[in-house]
UniProtKB/TrEMBL annotation:
Pfam families: DUF2000 (PF09391). This is DUF2000 domain-containing protein. Signal peptide: none annotated.
């Protein structure tokens, strides 16, 4: 699957988790978003010495703070926005010791019951803002 309609990607993190766990969740989500979203990574650039530096994201990536209820609501409401990509990271993912354990444990929980701790919401600015616009920056 490839997603190509992103001019904004926002991360929303549960404000009650430890900072290290929050950074880990955003890092994991970033890898998935980079893999799934066409054109999100810019071209390599050269500095004044001619040294090449790998491309980085070409769109803003604000990180917002929410609570688990807000995260769940965004995930569920995102179904109304077919041109929005939502990648979620749950407590189940963070506490699993292997991908097999994660997939097995997740298969036993509904989307509404999953303990979301971070999500990435990517798409057009208007749609992303409708889903996440009322949340404060993560500080």
């Amino acid at each position: 699957m490839s997603f190509s309609n992103a001019d904004k990607c926002t991360f929303v993190v549960d404000g009650d988790i430890a900072t290290g766990l929050a950074m880990n969740a955003v890092a994991a989500l970033s890898l998935s978003v980079g893999h799934l979203t066409e054109g999100i990574i810019g071209e390599d650039v050269k500095d004044a010495d001619g040294v090449s530096h790998h491309g980085i994201t070409s769109i803003p990536l604000p990180i917002l703070r929410g609570d688990r209820a807000a995260l769940r609501d965004i995930v569920l409401k995102s179904a109304e926005f077919p041109d929005v990509l939502v990648v979620d990271f749950t407590e189940v993912a963070q506490s699993s010791r292997s991908y097999d354990e994660y997939t097995d444990r997740t298969s036993r929980v509904t989307a509404a019951e999953l303990p979301y701790i971070a999500i990435a919401v990517c798409g057009g600015k208007s749609a992303v803002n409708k889903l996440t616009g009322s949340l404060p920056l993560y500080r």
